[in-house]
Write a structure and sequence with these properties.
By secondary structure, this protein is mainly α. It folds into two domains: about 170 residues, Arp2/3 complex 21 kDa subunit ARPC3; about 220 residues, Hypothetical protein af1432. It is about 60% helix and about 0% strand. The protein contains 16 helices and no strands. It is elongated, with a radius of gyration of 34 Å.
Length: about 425
């Protein structure tokens, strides 16, 4: 990427040099009549802005240094232009950091509000150092071109940013924000065809996103992975209990192994849909790994009861997901959130101690089954995740106050106390003898 961008920038500089000579010769307005002033209008910060937005500040700084050396070489050891390019690059890096990477418009803001003003400052500072002030027309022309250079570089970076994202497969915050939009076609289809799975994914996303923030992971990537992790259930939603509309057990006529095959297949279907939708690789990996190679316990137990009454060992291979186990912390976090959310729904009473027990058991099972071996979670991180899950679930299952005047649960009213007196209100005791 760095080599391609440097070569592309060199080509732009060469073309603009040619156009600057032609334009200056034919210009009638004084701002465009000096060919040397055009050099300040070149988009020196184009590549720096791209690297600052798509990569780390260290990589962007490396590119800024190489680009400034290229500028110095191209313009025959013009050290002022080299310094001009380097300082503009530093401003571009800081601008992206300041305006953040959530929106692509940060590239325009960095160029407009930081690079362009700093270009003016550098031009004026250079003349102050030299103590040789040019004519007013030349100074005005150079300042104008310095502003144009900052704007041109930012605009060029804004245009090429989506192209770079696709070519080099960058998963930017902007891309993730687009993918997590609830109005996308895949989410609308899921809400219609598999509403239970869609709601489940929303809760899993809430659990995973908050926990990701607590342990300093990319919370937006985790949220996107959680929202997409069950998209494979769109293919056969009726085979999953959360999407059951009628009280019919569709697995009743299937063998446990066949039911397991149907359940497991939603991972494969999800990966295929993700490829079709051109989802980024990290999200596809989360879909593929969100069950690891864990055991489908319900149907495994059913098989043991049906075919092995003595509860002897039955081969687990048929009843396990294909895997692999989560290879990243993001994928492991989605797996834990998925399991905890599903298990918490099985509770009749969602008290804090019950939720805490669910989380502890799910985490213990994941560790003992080897599902967390490859993701490098520390014990401290697991405790932080567990605490975050508990906090979120407490809010999800927070009880509400009763509505006055309504009896939604049809509670039985207290029966009135029985009146022991007979209907004729007679005293059962015989009257005392009246004396003569």
């Amino acid at each position: 990427m760095m080599g391609l961008t440097l070569a592309f920038s060199l080509m732009i500089y060469k073309v603009l040099l040619f156009l600057a000579d032609i334009s200056s010769q034919n210009a009638q307005f004084f701002l465009f009549s000096d060919s040397e002033s055009y050099k300040f209008a070149f988009p020196y910060q184009f590549g720096v802005i791209l690297f600052a937005f798509l990569t780390t500040n260290t990589v962007a700084l490396t590119y800024a240094i190489l680009n400034s050396l290229l500028v110095g070489y191209l313009f025959k050891a013009n050290y002022f232009l080299m310094i001009f390019s380097l300082i503009g690059g530093l401003a571009a890096i800081y601008g992206i950091k300041y305006y953040q990477r959530q929106k692509r418009t940060a590239t325009l803001r960095a160029g407009f509000f930081l690079v362009a003003p700093l270009n003016i400052f550098v031009i004026l500072t250079f003349y102050l150092i030299k103590e040789q002030w040019p004519g007013l027309e030349l100074l005005t022309s150079e300042v104008f071109m310095g502003i144009a250079g900052g704007l041109f570089g930012a605009a060029l970076a804004f245009v090429f940013l989506p192209i770079y994202e696709n070519i080099f497969r960058f998963v930017t915050q902007t891309k993730l924000l687009e993918l997590t939009n609830s109005e996308t076609e895949i989410f609308r289809q899921m809400a219609m065809d598999a509403p239970g799975s869609h709601h489940h994914s929303l809760i899993v996303a809430a659990l995973a996103e908050k926990a990701a923030e607590a342990i300093k992971l990319d919370s937006l990537l985790v949220k996107a992975g959680a929202l997409y992790h069950d998209i494979g259930k769109i293919k056969m939603p009726e085979y999953f209990i959360e999407n059951k509309i009628k009280k019919i057990d569709i697995h009743k006529d299937l063998t446990p192994s066949m039911s397991t095959l149907v359940i497991i297949n939603h991972v494969k279907e999800g990966v295929e849909i993700a490829k079709k939708e051109k989802l980024p690789l990290p999200i596809r990996e989360i879909i593929e790994q969100h069950h690891g190679n864990s055991l489908v316990r319900y149907f495994y137990q059913k098989a043991k009861e049906k075919y092995d009454p003595d509860m002897q060992k039955i081969g687990e291979e048929t009843y396990r997901y294909p895997g692999p186990p989560p290879q990243t912390k993001e994928a492991a976090l989605v797996m834990l959130a998925d399991s905890v959310e599903a298990a918490s729904r099985s509770l009749r009473i969602h008290k804090e101690e019950n939720l805490k027990r669910v989380i502890t058991d799910i985490f213990d099972n994941g560790v003992q089954d080897g599902q967390l071996d490859d993701c490098n979670f520390s014990l401290k991180e697991l405790r932080t995740i567990a605490s975050s899950f508990l906090s979120t679930l407490n809010m999800v299952y927070q009880p509400r106050v009763e509505y006055p005047g309504f009896d939604f649960e049809m509670k039985k009213k207290k029966k009135p106390e029985k009146n022991h007196k007979k209907d004729d209100d007679r005293d059962p005791k015989p009257p005392e003898k009246i004396p003569d």
